[in-house]
Every structure is written in C-alpha cells, then in structure tokens.
Design goal:
The structure is a single chain. The chain has 30 helices and three strands. It has 537 residues and is mainly alpha-helical. A hairpin with a 5-residue loop joins β1 and β2. The longest helix has 20 residues.
C-alpha cells in the first residue's frame, strides 16, 4: 500500500470504468478495504523506477494475484539485459510459490538473452527443477548437465541430474559416471549429507544394473565408512564370542581403543529417510552375499553391523541384523554361535512356527548338552508349549532315554491328537522301548506301537510315505515278510510331489532296504533284480 501511495500507481476496478489515483486519501483508504485483489488492475506511471516495479510485482505474486502477466509484459518490452536483475527477482518469486511454468519461462528468457546467466549455476539448477516438475525430462537433463559442467564438485547439481537420469534405464551408466566423477572431485573434502546421498544413489544404480561386484565395494564403504577396521577377522571373532548387545558394545569400545579412531561424519545426524535407505542397502548386500554363496563375507558384514552406531539404537534393525548373523552362522555350519544368537529369538518369538524350523536346523548342525539344558529350563516355565515338548522329546530320544521321550510325546499328543507326525513318533518310541534288552512287556509295547501306527495311517492317508514308514518299523521289529510287503507297496506308489522327486521320492531308499532283506534271507537273485530296476544310473 505504501509503494502504491508514494509511486503514484493507478488502480482500476475491472467492474468500473473509472480509475482511481492512489495519491488521494479517499482512494487509498478505499483500496485498503478491497477484499478481492484479483478484481483490480494496476498501471505504472512513466517515472516509476524499474526496481520499484519489480518489487511491486513480487508483492502481487506473494499475495496470489493472478493478473500480473500484463505488468511483466511491460518489463519484457524493454531491454532484457537492463532488466535482468528485476526479472531474476520475479522468477525466483515464482519459483518460491511453486509456479513452475511461469518461473521456467522467465529463466529461459534470461538464459537466452543475457550471457552472464549462462555461467550462473543457481539459474541452471532452478530452470532444471522447473522442467523436472513439469515432466519435461529432456530439457531438465540438459539444464542439469550444464550445471554439472559449470561445477563438477557441486553435489546438488549431480544429485538432480542423477535423479532425472534414473528415470530412463538407458541412462543409468551416465548417472553412475556423474556420481563417480563428483565423488572423485570431492575426495579430499569431508563427508556430508550430499555425499552420502550420492553414495546411496551409486549403490542403488549398481544394484539395478546387477553389477554386484561394484555394488559390494560401494555399499561396504557407505555402510561402514570410518569403521572398516571392524571387519578385520580378529575383530569379527571377538564379536562372535559376545553373547549379548552389552558384551558386543564392550568389545567394540576395546576395538576403538586399539585403533586410532577418528570419526569424520556422524550417521546418526542423518534424516530418518536417508538412514532407512542405507539400511535397505545393507539388506540388499546380505541377500547378494547369500545368492553368491559368499558366506565368509556375509559373516563379516552381519557381525560387523551389530556395533554400528547408526543401527545400535534401532531395535527393529538390530533384530534384522541378528537374523543375518543367524543365517550366516547356519550357512557356515557354525551351530554353536547360531544357537547363541537363536536363544534370544526363542524367548521373544516362541509362538512362531517359522522360528522353530530354524531351531531344528541349528540343532541338526551341532546338538549339544547345553542346548538340551536350555530347552529343559525353558519348558519348566512354559510347560504346555508344544514345540518345546517336541524338542525335549527329540533330545531324549537321541540320548536313548526313551521313557522320558514318551512322556513328552504324550504331552504333545494331548494337545494335538490328530497330528500324524505325533502319532508316528510315539509309535517309533514304543518300538524303541520294545527293542531294549531288559523288558518284560515286549508284546504289549509292540501292540501299543501298532495302535499309534494305525492312527498315523488314518490321519496321513495312504501314500508312499506311509508305506515306507510302516515298512521301516516292521524292519526294526525283524518282521521281514511284512517289511518286504510294504517296501514293495512303496515302490509301486508314485511320489506325491512329482516336481520335487529329488527331495521327496522314497523309491531309492525303499529299494535299498528291500535289497538288504533279500540278501539277509539269501535271495540274491531278487536283490539283483531290484537293484537293476531301481538303483541303476
């Protein structure tokens, strides 16, 4: 209002024919009461300074005035070079108001008519951003390329160009080259958020291109940075021996004291979305290590990540990293360390069926007395927990204490009497007890075994698996005629998983056991026929 009053700017209502001069008090007070600015037009006097005109237009744009184009056209009728400062001021105002098309138009006029703006990095960047928001990709790419050429060390220009190039899969190689050149030019400078963003984009592009070797190297530097010394084998061995987070933190501080450590950038100060992207890259790295079967490196990255400051305070990330450590130990067939990691998961996720599958894998790698004691103590706390009862029964049957195993299996049977596996394992346990040397009720035990065997057949159904398991029990009881009968039935039935015969087909096992029976009773010709039919490569 003050500018209008002092500079003799005229105001005209679109709905009225007369114009009001702002130097009159009544007119100025009338204008102050206008509710809708878009109902009025303005006219500059000839004596009005060009900078005042620009400032007035900026005020109108800031007030969301929608009819300012005729005022800008008046400025454009003059020499662009003389009005370049005013035009850049108006263009920046449009840019701040996110009016991309108007801002782009003025930036393009300046770049076309004023030579000095061709070397202005900020103008090229803003022009490229306007084109990008307007989905004019080719113009945006050319603008960002000019900005990068003006200053190869500018991370903002490089990031803007990379983000646009990533939209076209054929330009990923150029994007990777831009990142590499910018990082090389900034090598001597300290790490900051812009450099981290460039490194993240480099990793993502290399992963998308399936250039896994370069991805591994880039992600290693991004993730560990100042802490690369943690990945040394002796440090990883120390971290493996630590059983808890507090022990790992103590080991980590010892490692820091041993090395002359100096932090150059604190990842904890990064924005949360950037930290999330870094952790996603870590998960991609672990998956690639598994797919490439580079289990030793997976072990290094998994245990090394447990002490990184960025992930230490995030409980969800810590669980993911612990799981990566578990997978690494399983693939390395290190059952002892795998079980140490698994114990925390068992206590927290004891109702997860998937977890108990991992428990079975780990116990199969390295069954030990300490594991058995752990599960016995845990079962005292959760007495009716089905997987715990099953695990304790399995340990008992492995150690030969069949009667204790039978007690635990019966506990499982009470909870799930229609499970075919529970019925089968009880039948096998009765069979083991009946085969013990000092036993006065052998026939009763065999009868009980057969009762549960029939229940198993009922709930599982007739298939190759049931015939084979019946034959194995008969074979153990030295009932060779019944065992041979069911082995033959097993050979006659097809596998119920035709696409996975290498895993589930029992034909070879049944044939081999049948050959053993024939050889034991002296029928070598029958054994030879079975061998030629089923065991010939």
């Amino acid at each position: 209002m003050l500018v209008m009053s002092q500079c003799q700017i005229k105001v005209k209502n679109k709905n009225l024919e007369n114009s009001l001069e702002t130097n009159s008090a009544s007119t100025f007070s009338q204008f102050e009461s206008f509710e809708n600015l878009n109902n009025y037009l303005f006219e500059f006097p000839e004596s009005c300074d060009k900078h005042v005109k620009a400032q007035f237009i900026v005020c109108l744009i800031s007030l969301d005035y929608q009819n300012e184009n005729y005022l800008i056209d008046e400025i454009l009728c003059n020499d662009i070079k003389e009005y370049s400062d005013e035009l850049i001021l108006i263009a920046n105002t449009y840019y701040g108001k996110e009016n991309w098309s108007s801002a782009k138009k003025l930036y393009l006029i300046l770049l076309t008519n004023v030579a000095e703006f061709l070397v202005h990095l900020d103008v090229w960047l803003k022009y490229g951003n306007c084109c990008s928001y307007l989905e004019e990709i080719e113009e945006a790419i050319n603008a960002y390329r000019n900005a990068v050429n003006l200053d190869p060390t500018n991370c903002e220009a490089a990031l803007s160009l990379v983000n646009v190039l990533k939209k076209n899969s054929f330009l990923l190689e150029e994007a990777s080259t831009v990142i590499r050149n910018t990082l090389i030019s900034r090598k001597s400078q300290p790490i900051n958020t812009d450099i981290i963003n460039l490194m993240i984009n480099e990793c993502l592009i290399q992963h998308e291109q399936k250039n896994y070797e370069k991805f591994i190297q880039s992600s290693r530097i991004l993730l560990f940075g100042d802490f690369l010394f943690v990945l040394e084998p002796e440090n990883i061995n120390l971290l493996q021996k630590a059983d808890s987070r507090s022990q790992r933190a103590f080991v980590f501080h010892q490692i820091l004291e041993k090395n002359d450590f100096e932090i150059t950038f604190n990842y904890n100060k990064l924005q949360q979305n950037i930290q999330n992207m870094i952790f996603e890259i870590y998960l991609k790295l672990c998956k690639i290590m598994v797919n490439l079967k580079r289990h030793n490196e997976l072990l290094l990255y998994a245990f090394g990540a447990t002490v990184l400051p960025m992930v230490y305070e995030r409980i969800d990330w810590n669980k993911s990293i612990q799981f990566a450590c578990l997978v690494a130990c399983i693939l390395k067939k290190d059952g002892q360390n795998a079980f140490n990691i698994l114990k925390d998961f068992i206590i927290e996720f004891k109702n997860s069926n998937r977890l108990w599958s991992y428990v079975g894998i780990v116990i199969g790698l390295c069954p030990s007395l300490s594991q058995q004691k752990f599960f016995i103590r845990l079962s005292a706390k959760y007495m009716d927990h089905l997987p715990l009862c099953m695990i304790n029964a399995h340990f008992a049957i492995m150690s030969g204490t069949y009667r204790y195993a039978l007690v635990e299996y019966m506990n499982c049977f009470k909870q799930n009497p229609f499970d075919p596996f529970v019925n089968l394992i009880i039948s096998i346990t009765y069979c083991h007890i009946s085969c013990q040397k000092y036993n006065t009720k052998r026939h009763l035990l065999v009868s009980q075994s057969l009762v549960f065997l029939r229940r198993y057949i009922k709930f599982r159904g007739v298939c190759q698996e049931t015939y084979y398991n019946i034959a194995r029990i008969m074979h153990q009881l030295s009932l060779f005629d019944l065992a041979a009968h069911y082995y033959k039935k097993c050979l006659e039935v097809e596998c119920i998983f035709p696409d996975q015969k290498d895993v589930y087909d029992l034909t070879r096992y049944a044939a081999y056991n049948l050959i053993l029976i024939y050889k034991q009773i002296g029928s070598h010709e029958l054994a030879r026929n079975i061998m030629q039919e089923y065991l010939t490569i």
